[in-house]
Every structure is written in structure tokens, then in C-alpha cells.
């Protein structure tokens, strides 16, 4: 594994934000959504969260995980996420390289307990 700050073209699918990360009614993602909503993120403004996640990738160190038979190369990034209410929670975001070997696609983001 290699640790380094992230750089590269990034893709944050709008549906991932609107229908999962900020959907309090999602059967699996509901608790996660309530966490992000409590920091001022709004499903009506998905670009705000997308921008914060891109900034999170670019400003925090990441750990590169090797490619597996079922998944492309992944990057795990941990650190503060700039939030609309300025409290900046600590989160882990996971990104994957798929068909475009130069681009990273957001897989998920999860809350972390601040150490």
C-alpha cells in the first residue's frame, strides 16, 4: 500500500449523493444520510456535497489499495470534510478507478469518530 495525497480527474455521481448519501429514508444509508444532513448538506443542492468530497480527496492523504479480480484500484481518504455549517466532520471516502484508469469515481463516504 502506498500513502499519498490524491490528484486526478474525479467523478461524484449525482445519484450517489441524492439517492444514497443524503437520503434519510434509504434502507442502508439512512443513518449516514442523517449524519451528513446534520452538517448542513442538502439533497436539493448535491453540487455542494460533490464539491466538498472532491476537496476532501484533494486535500487529505490517501492510501492506495491494489486492484482485485472484482474491483479496480481503490483509494481510501480520511480527514475533515468541509461542510456548509463549518463544523467539518471527519470522514472516510472511498474512490475507485474503473474503465478510465486516470479517473477516480466515488464509491462511498462514511463518518469517522474523531480521534
UniProtKB/TrEMBL annotation:
Q: What domain of life is recorded for the organism? A: Bacteria
Kindly name one Pfam family recorded for this protein: DUF6883
Under InterPro entries, the record lists:
DUF6883
Q: Domain DUF6883: where?
A: 11-111
The protein here is known as DUF6883 domain-containing protein
Species of provenance: Methylorubrum populi
